[in-house]
Amino acid sequence: MSETAKLIIGDETYELPIVVGSEGERAIDTTSLRQDSGYITLDPGYANTGSCKSAITFVNGEKGVLRYRGYPIETLAEQSSFIETAMLLIFGELPTSQERADFRTLLGEQEFLHTDLMHHFEGFPASGSPMAILSAVINSLGTFSPDLYDVVTPDRFRLAAAKLMSKVRTIAAFAFRKSIGRPIIYPNTKLGYCHNFLHMMFSMPYQIFEPRYEAIDALELFLIVHADHEQNCSCSTVRMVGSSEANLFASVASGICALWGRLHGGANVGVIETLQRIQKGELTVPECIEKVKTKQIKLMGFGHRVYKSFDPRAKILKRAAHKLLAAMGHKHDPLLAIAQELEDAALNDPYFTGRKLYPNVDFYSGIILRALGIPTPMFPVMFAIGRLPGWIAHWNEEFRDPTTRIHRPRQIYVGPHVREYVAIENRKG
Ligand code: ACO
Question: Which candidate, 168, 162, 384, 127, places its Cα nearest to that of 257?
């Protein structure tokens, strides 16, 4: 007989099924609780709520474990490429060489933007946030392929996924070029995914930008570690929007908006701003720690809803930051040293250790992006490019799951009781 939990409310006892995941995590299934008892569960911020069953990514926050489809992030970071990792997440298995080559060809075919879509970039102000532009243009992308609003067959889904994966970097690079008033550089199909992106970002019509291989490797790694992180704010947004049967393009565009905020994909901008303030002498490390402890500021790049020990992605990116800076001759980048000093100070302070606050993926990622020449307004965009395979995989998982219902949380209403409408002339000021 399957295990159940007993909930006693007054004289009534309710038996609730227990669900056990493949790694042993346990949940109490409250699906029928309201129907049986009249009660709902209340969990602001959903810290204790499982919104779905998923076979994509496993996180154990206590032990600092992250696996995509069963493969440890450390292994993928060392041995895989971003495209291979993306295929693993989206299609469920590591590709064969033929499958990877075919998908690369498809990405190459999809990397250009329709000329009419290009006109969108002219309508945005130069100061426009590249996240707003990315979200708007990704949503508009769907209007150029309305046949892909319905991705019932695997072939259509594959094409929609390839369109998004390929065009996201073209859109991101075009948004950047527009923001700095430089001419747009078209993609070069002969280049690999990351190399092509750096080409569109930094080449000039009269001079091709040739990135160092260490820079391409670091970008691959950055994208791999960002590729998925189960039910975070942006992924849950994509799943929620998708649950209404909104199409993949619209759902991903919503995910980009959710990622934009400083508590999520915008946190690495906050990290760099803090490190720069320390560098300029506006703040010392002890003053920064003090401000955090007295709740005047949050230490960006620290803390995580799930990780209550080291975020494994932060460890990978910290090592990568050191390696990249050494290879590029930036050994003495002051921000890396300041980040290390800040991390040491935080990890030796009971405020942080007591609350289990450790560096998260954002703490060192900005240093890598700076070394690649990516400006801070583009940081969340880089995160979005990395997270795209995860969003696509989750949207598809939800779309194909016959048990999916539209996401519709409940609430506990705490507003006024029924009131009588007073005509405007009778209202007192
Ligand atoms: N700096 C200072 N204090 C913090 C931080 C931080 N970065 N993070 C959490 N705390 C404190 C909270 O104030 C709270 O203190 P209290 O018990 O005295 O009230 C305690 O630690 C528990 O934190 P919660 O608010 O419960 O953490 P929550 O799970 O709600 O939030 C979050 C997680 C949003 C990531 C938070 O740690 C934070 O704001 N960090 C900074 C922003 C950041 O780096 N975001 C990126 C996250 S990773 C990602 O999205 C890719």
Answer: 384
342: which residues sit within 8 A by CB, 6+ positions away?
Answer: 274, 275, 278, 285, 288, 289, 299
Maximum alpha-carbon separation in the chain: 80
Task: Say whether pLDDT at 192 is over 90.
Answer: yes
Burial group, residue 65, by CB count within 10 angstroms (0-12, 13-18, 19+):
middle
Mutate to test the pocket of ligand 1, among 273, 298, 349, 379 (most ligand atoms within 8 A of CB): 298
8 Å CB contact between 200 and 169: yes
- The Cα 299–Cα 20 span in angstroms is 35
User: Residues 255, 235: contact at Cβ < 8 Å?
Assistant: yes
Q: Establish whether 311 is a catalytic residue.
A: no
Alpha-carbon span 293 to 277, nearest angstrom: 18
User: Edge-to-edge, what's the strand order for the sheet holding 65-68?
Assistant: 57-60, 65-68, 71-72
State the amino acid at position 369 in one-letter form.
L
Cα–Cα distance for residue pair 398/381, rounded to 1 Å = 25
State how far the Cα of 252 lies from the Cα of 148, in Å rounded to an integer. Answer: 14
Average pLDDT over the chain, rounded to whole? Answer: 95
Mutate to test the pocket of ligand 1, among 59, 229, 360 (most ligand atoms within 8 A of CB): 360
Question: Exposure pattern of 360-387 as b/e (b: 16+ CB <10 Å)?
Answer: bbbbbbbbbbbbbebebbbbbbbbbbbb
- The model's pLDDT over 266-321, given as tens digits with 9 standing for 90+, comes to 899 999 999 999 999 999 999 999 999 999 999 999 999 999 988 999 999 999 99
Annotated active-site residue in 120, 304, 311, 333:
304
The pLDDT of residue 233 is 97
Nearest CA to 356 out of 47, 46, 45, 62 is that of 62
Q: Does the annotation count 264 as an active-site position?
A: no
The amino acid present at 157, given as its one-letter code, is: F
Share above pLDDT 70 across residues of the chain, in percent, rounded to a whole number? 99
What residues line ligand 1, using a CB cutoff of 6 Å? 45, 232, 263-264, 267, 292, 298-305, 355, 357, 360-362
